[in-house]
Design brief:
53% helix, 2 domains, alpha/beta, DNA polymerase, domain 1, 225 residues, five-stranded parallel β-sheet
Amino acid sequence: MKQGGSDANFRRLRAVLFDMDDTLFDHRQSSRRGLVAIQQRYPCFQHTPLDDLERIHRSLLEEVHLQVLRGEMSLDQARTVRMERLFAQFGGQSSPEIVEEAARRYREVYQTSRQTVPGTLALLEALRPYVKIGIVSNNMLAEQQEKLRYLGLEPHIDILVVSEEVGILKPEAGIFQVALERLHCSAEEAVMIGDAWHNDILGARGAGIRAIWLNRYGMPVQTLR
């Protein structure tokens, strides 16, 4: 068989890096179930289609999560702030007690609904004999460690690099370089797989790493920041 350039490149692959949320862990599925739970309980959300409620909630989540990553609030505080802003968006009653109850309900359903993205375990098991596997995530270390344990993914992962731990956020090249150093490989010997075009794909490419976009929902590139 004639060996082409792509075969040679594949043979040089020594490490596969993954994003965590919505790449290995199905964050969106858990989030939607949490939103259904509060939609059913609070009248102010009941006349809004779930897709619209999800879109607004996702925007609030991204906004508040950046504050968490900058150390401006804890994860628990962020959940309360996010829910308070969600009630405000829909003109619902938002006493501290209602907000806390809604945040707690959303979190409980989110946690019990956690699962991997379909095909995750099979992919990791297929890769494991041939390459090192790492995760590069913009999140809190304890949060992601617990998630890996819950999902049963720990035995398949060699290294976990989290922005809180290293003080660098994707898409900055530095967080990818930390992962490469821990895996003892070069950028040319690695590939990054992620769902976020800006953070995962452009970030990895900026670090000299090949990247594969996991675009599960058919989003056009031009609409992504």
